[in-house]
Amino acid sequence: MSDDDLTEFFDDNTHWVDGNGTVTTSQPPKPPKSRREMRRRRTAKRRRTLLATIMTIVIVVVLACGGYFGLKAVRSWRAGNSGESSAVLDYASSEAYGSVEFTVSQGEDSASIAKRLVEQDVVRSVDAFTGVSAGMTLYPGTYQLKKHMSGADVAAILSDQSKAEGFLNVNAGERVSDVIAKAAALSKIDKSEFQKIIDAKGAGILPSEAGGSFEGWLEPGSYNVKSMGSASEILKTIVDKRIAKLDELKVPSGSERERILIIASIAEAEVNSKDYYGKVTRVILNRLDRGMTLGMDSTTAYGLGINGTQLTNAQLKDSSNPYNTRVNKGLTPTPISNPGDDAIAAALNPEQGDWLYFVTVNLSTGETKFTTGTIDQQNAQFEQYVKEYKQNNKNAN
């Protein structure tokens, strides 16, 4: 046996002696029987050493990679939750300059908004905006921004609805003339473009039952007219919304749909509370059933293009005004405003009652009283309510 073999043998078996030189097993290991066995042991040891070395290297690499990616993840999390400027490419507030008109579309998400902000050189990176706008409500509209703004500054503006421009609000009870005036001003489209469509009786936009009149066919809501390219697109969008809403409310189609809109528009114009719409629509139906005139000042004023407070006695007696329901029987030729959902629902399902008259006895509170009983009783109640109205509103302008 060579010196190497002996060294190999004793190195492999040092485990049977403890640190104090004391034998830890009952018997010493047996010597190898041959050089072949010694070589086999030496080869096995080298393999174990090599395997141990490889495993050590693998563990070190894994730990190193884990630390790197873990640190990167922590930094990303910190950036998203604290706006850490070093984690994302962002501009400082002091770097902003110039002017950029930026429009947020209805339903647009923050990622899409961020991408366009980068394209228009408003923010430096997508992450600069999305990292700080997460959880915010970003309102549609047109905003006045600057170039090289910080993501936080932009998010603060786009989440403030009061800073949105170019959105047309169509309110329940508004007349078409008022809506058109606002739409023209907000869209920067000349009012004459809208008037051309109205004069053409809404060809290609209005349904046949509208009879060529937009009144009553504009759905209340908010519309991004700034992003629309023409008066035709604006009007069609609003009318289509109205048709969809009428379908949703299950309003009968054809002439009955126009009739419902007329009744609802009168109720909307006559009282300022949805609590009274059901009774007002019943008054209208009761008077029609009895062959009475409706006697609504709101309709007469509409026919003249004024409001009820401007009516004169001569105007109230003028039968040439087709909307004068003081002297002309039946419903008006068209709706007199764009009624909202509550008024339409009331016209579809009016309350049950024998009411023939009503008076808003207090203009400040909107309190409205309805007559009931026989004709004579209702006439007497009506006179009493008129006295209350005069007493309550004698100092009103």
UniProtKB/TrEMBL annotation:
It is an enzyme of class 4 (lyase). Residues 1-11 have a biased composition (Acidic residues). One of its GO terms (biological process) is peptidoglycan biosynthetic process. InterPro entries: MLTG-like. Its EC number is 4.2.2.29. CDD domains: MltG_like (cd08010). The chain crosses the membrane at residues 49-71. It catalyses: a peptidoglycan chain = a peptidoglycan chain with N-acetyl-1,6-anhydromuramyl-[peptide] at the reducing end + a peptidoglycan chain with N-acetylglucosamine at the non-reducing end. The keyword Lyase applies. It is a single-pass membrane protein. Residues 32-43 have a biased composition (Basic residues). Keywords: Cell membrane, Cell wall biogenesis/degradation, Lyase, Membrane, Transmembrane, Transmembrane helix. The record marks 270 as: Important for catalytic activity. One of its GO terms (cellular component) is plasma membrane. Functions as a peptidoglycan terminase that cleaves nascent peptidoglycan strands endolytically to terminate their elongation. Belongs to the transglycosylase MltG family. This is Endolytic murein transglycosylase. It comes from Bifidobacterium leontopitheci.
